[in-house]
Write a structure and sequence with these properties.
The complex is a heterodimer of chains A (478) and B (217).
Chain A (H helix, E strand, L loop, with lengths): L5 E2 L9 H18 L1 E2 L3 H9 L3 E3 L4 E3 L2 H8 L7 E2 L8 E2 L4 E6 L5 E3 L6 E3 L2 H13 L5 E2 L12 H10 L5 E4 L5 H15 L2 H6 L3 E6 L8 H12 L4 E5 L2 E2 L7 H22 L5 E5 L2 E3 L6 E2 L10 H9 L4 E3 L11 H7 L2 H7 L4 E5 L1 E2 L4 E2 L1 H17 L7 H4 L1 H7 L9 H7 L20 H15 L7 H18 L1
Parallel strand pairs in A: 7-19, 8-21, 10-11, 11-12, 12-13, 13-15, 14-16, 18-19
Antiparallel strand pairs in A: 1-7, 2-4, 3-4, 5-6, 8-9, 16-17, 20-21
Helix pairs in contact in A: 1-9, 1-10, 3-9, 4-5, 5-6, 6-8, 6-18, 8-9, 13-17
Chain B lengths: L2 H14 L2 H13 L4 H21 L5 H18 L13 E8 L6 H12 L2 E10 L1 H11 L3 E5 L7 H12 L7 E5 L5 H7 L3 E2 L3 H12 L4
Parallel strand pairs in B: 1-2, 1-3, 3-4, 4-5
Helix pairs in contact in B: 1-2, 1-3, 1-4, 2-4, 3-4, 5-9, 6-7
Classes of the chains: A alpha/beta (478), B alpha/beta (217).
The structure holds cobalamin (B12).
Cobalamin (B12) sits at the interface of chains B and A.
């Protein structure tokens, strides 16, 4: 099925220009006065070369605001995310929002046995096929980890994805220079050559910043290599209010943004013009237990950070879906996330993760992807323009029926009633004439996709090349 | 100020989470010739126990617990060096706690440490991104009976196994119990690597730690 992104002409603005400037000013102040820890000699050397203040003992870099401004001037506002199937290439642009699956879960409810167990590569493959089929999914975060492949897992997750879908892949685990190098090699095999990979990057990588105000050596050094090869990288800050960030949203935005901008500046200094996206996903620490809480009733101005990203001139990766509910089909599973796809699109987010995981991004029930897909389509349709014309006003029909009576015998009704409703998981009639259980319908749909959807297979020669690279990586990484 | 008053106020400084007051009172106690062990047991420990109760009953939130712990730690730094040679503060056990190599997830580990401290354990937090060898050597140095290892990534879980193995190699496996935790950790994994226990959250980590050191839960 072709990708159906959310396109909307509606837009909202959550923050005023003044608030955005104030937030940006806070970031500049933090970068200049407090600094960010980069535990990487390579990163420190690049910063020092460009005139940032580097303390080699503490590994803290303080970046003067002029340098930040200069570096940020080269970040591209939009770029492309290529796909193995060119029809699935994504061209980031205004008023279009592309969604991905959620990624990197650690456990799954086995689709056949119903038992909870650790995830393996076969799960990544299977879910890639399901995601390839769904029109809500524009790009893929490997949904669970290939835990049967040790430290080479991130590369096996790429392999499982490319072998089972045509869409762009975004890795959340490809950390460090060695894995990054193998990943680029794999991408080059599929793209044909390095230039083509740069022109249509078949994968991208999300690297977390380490709240508060630090970076991951592996993440940063891998990112430098990826940026050099033209692979888009995103920096994802996850400030948790109360533990790794102040307990106020503005403060969390400031800390998270400073982390993201510091890493973006580094990429631009090393490789001016490198495609980088901005991502900030806030959460709260439960004040009593410290548990990670991504959804609560008092959240305010959700997605303000997207506007902050745009204010810097960067595209943004938003976080939507990802309920805390352990089980699918619960009230909470929908309540947590149902507003997300609407809001995140209204603020003009370019790319968004991710549908389909439960228990705060850790547990996969395959059915949840179908249920989230339904929420997605509800949002997508809600945001579509209303057609008001002679045909849709149906005045002739209204005249013909007049006061009283009904519309069922009208030709106009016959023509439009077939398509006026989306028969999603909630409106499938059972043999008893009653609506079936949505969870059961979702399960059946997963099954149907697995039995019927066969993505275009990867050419044999490329498959063999990937296997060869994986074997080498396995030997090197263990 | 009477001796009783100093001790009561020491306890209160922990309950209120006032590290500066705690330090001042501890110094004053020593100046007035109070027994440091009594100050610790009847002042600081009583205070932190009260903090624990208030936290459990829902009145105190995390920062109250953490800052109370810091007040206690600050006063201990004054009182402990003054203990006589044969005196020792009563603790439930010595724990070495950290997040394993390659893993930078800090909060879960820190919370476990906070809860263990508030419940009477002496915790040495060795930080994040620590190889198995660091856990083992810290356990040896601290004369610990428990190691707590946190791993949040499926790729770093094997380091927990290494801790168990290296403890054996160091000949310490009989003295030191190992407990593990983190989002991807299960009882099954604990069994598989021969760890002594797994806990899902900080509250159950305390119960587990007590059980492992043989204290009634
Ligand atoms: C917040 C977070 C981060 C923060 C951590 C900030 C910090 N300074 O600690 C940041 C943004 C830095 C981060 C980075 C990364 N993360 Co992260 N992170 C999370 C998240 C959302 C919550 C973790 C958390 O803080 N929970 C709150 C605390 C209180 O809970 P807890 O840690 O589980 O601890 C409790 C229990 O587990 C237990 N416990 C914990 N330790 C111990 C120890 C003992 C001895 C005992 C008894 C009990 C115990 O008690 C604790 C208290 O109740 C989890 C998802 C999740 N739901 O767990 C992902 C998650 C763990 N991260 C993940 C990933 C992939 C990463 C990155 C690789 C992402 C990237 N692309 O860069 C990096 C890795 C960096 C590194 N090298 O470690 C994945 C792991 C997937 C996998 N297959 O391994 C998860 C599952 C999310 C996901 N699906 O993508 N992450």
């Amino acid at each position: 099925m072709p990708i159906e992104p959310i396109r909307t002409t509606f837009q909202i603005q959550l923050l005023s220009h003044e608030q955005l400037n104030r937030l940006q000013e806070a970031t500049l102040t933090i970068l200049e006065e407090v600094g960010v820890r980069f535990p990487s000699q390579k990163a420190l050397a690049i910063f020092a070369d460009h005139g940032a203040l580097v303390d080699h003992d503490t590994q803290i870099v303080r970046i003067p605001r002029d340098l930040v401004r200069r570096a940020m001037a080269t970040v591209p506002r939009y770029f492309n995310l290529g796909a193995r199937d060119p029809a699935c290439d994504l061209h980031l642009q205004e008023c279009v929002t592309y969604f991905a699956t959620d990624g990197c879960g650690v456990e799954t409810i086995d689709f056949e046995t119903g038992q909870r167990r650790s995830s393996v590569k076969a799960d990544v493959e299977r879910m890639a096929r399901v995601a390839d089929y769904l029109s809500s999914i524009a790009f893929y975060w490997p949904m669970i980890s290939a835990q049967d492949f040790g430290r080479a897992a991130p590369l096996h997750e790429l392999d499982a994805s490319w072998n089972n879908m045509g869409k762009h892949i975004q890795s959340e685990t490809l950390m460090g220079e060695v894995p990054a190098r193998y990943g680029i090699e794999m991408g080059t095999v599929i793209a044909g050559d390095k230039d083509e990979l740069r022109r249509r990057p078949l994968f991208s990588v999300v690297i977390c910043t380490i709240a508060p105000l630090a970076q991951d050596k592996e993440g940063i050094e891998g990112a430098l290599l990826l940026a050099e090869a033209g692979i888009p990288v995103g920096f994802l800050a996850m400030p948790t209010m109360g533990t790794t960030a102040p307990s106020t949203f503005a403060g969390a935005l400031a800390v998270g943004d400073a982390e993201i901008i510091s890493a973006t500046v580094l990429m631009q200094l090393a490789h001016p013009g490198a495609p980088v996206f901005h991502s900030l996903m806030e959460a709260w620490a439960d004040p009593r237990s410290g548990a990670y809480v991504a959804y609560q009733a008092k959240a305010r101005c959700r997605y303000a950070q997207i506007e902050l990203a745009h204010h810097w001139g960067m595209p943004a990766l938003g976080g939507a879906f990802g309920t805390e509910s352990v089980n699918p089909g619960t009230w909470q599973a929908a309540a947590d996330v149902a507003m997300d796809p609407i809001l995140v699109s209204l603020v003009g987010t370019e790319i968004v993760t991710g549908l389909g995981l439960n228990r705060s991004y850790t547990l996969l029930h395959a059915e949840s992807l179908i249920l989230d897909d339904e929420l997605y389509h509800r949002a997508r349709n809600t945001l579509m323009d209303l057609e008001v014309d002679d045909n849709t006003l149906a005045l002739d029909s209204i005249r013909a029926v007049g006061p009283g009576g009904h519309f069922m015998a009208q030709e106009h009704t016959r023509k439009h009633m077939r398509t006026m409703m989306e028969m999603g998981v909630t409106h499938q009639l059972g043999p008893d004439g009653k609506y079936r259980d949505p969870l059961e319908v979702a399960r059946e749909k997963v099954n149907w996709i697995l039995n019927n959807h066969q993505p275009e297979p990867l050419e044999e020669a490329k498959r063999a090349e990937l296997s060869r690279i994986l074997a080498a990586a396995g030997r090197e990484l263990g | 100020m009477s001796k009783e008053e100093i001790i009561t106020r020491l306890a209160q400084s922990v309950i209120d989470g006032e590290p500066e007051d705690a330090v001042e009172l501890a110094k004053q106690a020593l100046d007035e010739g109070l027994d440091p062990l009594v100050c610790i047991n009847q002042g600081l420990t009583a205070g932190i126990n009260r903090v624990g109760e208030l936290f459990a009953s829902g009145e105190y939130f995390l920062p109250d617990l953490i800052i109370g712990g810091e007040a206690m730690k600050a006063a201990l730094a004054v009182l402990e060096p003054a203990l006589a040679g044969d005196q020792e503060r009563q603790i439930l056990g010595r724990v070495v706690l950290g997040t394993v190599r390659g893993d930078l997830h800090e909060i879960g580990k820190t919370l476990v440490g906070t809860m263990l401290t508030a419940n009477g354990f002496l915790v040495t937090d060795i930080g994040i991104d620590k190889p198995a060898a660091d856990f083992v050597s810290a356990a040896r140095e601290a004369n610990a009976t428990l190691i707590g290892a946190s791993a949040l990534l499926t790729t770093t879980m094997p380091e927990q196994q290494k801790i168990v193995e290296e403890l054996k190699e160091a000949g310490l496996r009989d003295q030191v119990r190992v407990m593990i935790g983190g989002a991807p950790i299960t009882q099954g994994w604990a069994d598989k690597i021969g760890a002594d226990g797994y806990a899902e959250d900080a509250i159950s980590a305390v119960a587990l730690a007590k059980q492992l050191v043989g204290v009634p839960v």
